[in-house]
Amino acid sequence: MIFYLTLIFACQLVGELLKVALELPVPGPVIGMVLLFAGLMIKRGIPEDLAEVGYTFLSNLSLLFVPAGVGVMLHIALIGEQALAITLALVGSTLATIAVTALVMRAMSRAEDADTGRSTDG
């Protein structure tokens, strides 16, 4: 279990190092998550202990919102000044996420149909 926890943190560290070294506009933890995902795809599965560590993180995820809530309360005036921009960004990113998800689902469905020999035309 400690190995997989260390693995998750190591992926995050490597992501942070890549972000700084390559001056990427993506957060280091996101890069680390992609690295971990790539490793799991190569391994073709999720080890049971890694799944347990992930489940533990997810079950305690609400604790990670406490600092964000404090930040919101600290800067509530600034948020009020930028309400229109924040609203447009939230709506735009939500619509973009829905569109990308639909496109990926459509592409994966077509790939699955091609693998099984079924037609998607009707």
TrEMBL record:
<keyword id="KW-0812">Transmembrane</keyword>
<dbReference type="Pfam" id="PF03788">
    <property type="entry name" value="LrgA"/>
</dbReference>
<dbReference type="InterPro" id="IPR005538">
    <property type="entry name" value="LrgA/CidA"/>
</dbReference>
<keyword id="KW-1003">Cell membrane</keyword>
<feature type="transmembrane region" description="Helical">
    <location>
        <begin position="83"/>
        <end position="104"/>
    </location>
</feature>
<keyword id="KW-1133">Transmembrane helix</keyword>
<feature type="transmembrane region" description="Helical">
    <location>
        <begin position="54"/>
        <end position="77"/>
    </location>
</feature>
<keyword id="KW-0472">Membrane</keyword>
<protein>
    <submittedName>
        <fullName>CidA/LrgA family protein</fullName>
    </submittedName>
</protein>
<feature type="transmembrane region" description="Helical">
    <location>
        <begin position="25"/>
        <end position="42"/>
    </location>
</feature>
